[in-house]
Specification:
Blueprint lengths: L1 E2 L18 E5 L20 H11 L6 E5 L8 E9 L5 E6 L4 H20 L68 H19 L10
Antiparallel strand pairs: 1-2, 2-3, 4-5
The structure holds flavin-adenine dinucleotide.
């Protein structure tokens, strides 16, 4: 179940101090044997009390979450690593990333909405996980990495034009999540596919008839 009232510009941001938003969701993955063993706060992690708590909580608990946008920031970028190289001696890609106040404010606001929903479900117990910095790549928090060959309206600030055509090499088209300058509050793949169709149509209907830049820099 997903609600979209707090995604993008679907709500009034007056006085909130951030832009963007995200969707709120409850996901049902059935009783996964390893991950689905929620226990109340304070339960020991082994022994008879642990087993009793798992028995009592199994299929009697759920989680709801927010999936939010991340905007472009100058301090977040990809470049060539000055130290680490691959087997051929070529520099590895280095990612420099952290959340900014915009993401923390947005996340707090969305979490407040989740708390309201959870309270309305009248739970015996609930646990609130607020996003705290700095960003860590270690805990799993979706794999929606974007950027690298971003799309834009000029060659100074982007790698491709709106048809995912390289500004430098007109016969090179690159499609994928790397085209996104930022990630909206949605999973990326639907948009990746839509952009691939957009690119293919431009190649068929424009580029093949008249090879060259489809947008003048
Ligand atoms: C565990 C997991 C769960 C996910 N769940 C979702 C989801 O539920 N919904 C959603 O929308 N998105 C989801 N995503 C994100 C989604 O998979 C990616 O955003 C999407 O696949 C990006 O597409 P892409 O074409 O940019 O890159 P990729 O799909 O990564 O394609 C890049 C391709 O380039 C190839 N390649 C790399 N280097 C070279 C080279 N030198 N020469 C030739 N080929 C090369 C790779 O082998 C790969 O096939 C998930 C990702 C992960 C990892």
């Amino acid at each position: 179940m997903v609600i979209d009232e707090f995604n993008g510009d679907n709500f009034d941001h007056t006085g909130l101090g951030f832009i963007g938003g995200g969707y709120l969701a409850q996901m049902q993955t059935n009783g996964r044997p390893i991950e689905s063993q929620p226990t109340p706060e304070g339960t020991p992690s082994w022994g008879a009390d642990y087993k009793r708590a798992v028995r009592e909580s199994y299929n009697h608990s759920t989680s709801i979450f927010a999936h939010g946008a991340v905007m472009s920031h100058r301090g977040n970028y990809l470049d060539l690593d000055p130290t680490y190289t691959d087997a051929y001696g070529r520099p590895l890609l280095r990612m420099t990333f952290d959340f900014t106040d915009n993401e923390y404010r947005m996340s707090n606001y969305l979490t407040d909405r989740l708390v309201e929903i959870a309270r309305a479900m009248n739970p015996r117990e609930m646990k609130v996980n607020r996003r705290k910095g700095p960003y860590s790549i270690v805990p799993y928090q979706s794999t929606h990495n974007t950027g690298g060959h971003i799309m834009g309206d000029n060659p100074r600030e982007s790698v491709t034009n709106r048809y995912n055509q390289s500004w430098d090499l007109p016969n090179l088209f690159v499609t994928g999540a790397g085209n996104f300058p930022q990630n909206p509050g949605y999973n990326p793949t639907g948009t990746v596919a839509a952009l691939a169709y957009h690119t293919a149509q431009a190649i068929r209907t424009q580029y093949l008839r008249n090879p060259g830049p489809l947008v003048q820099a």
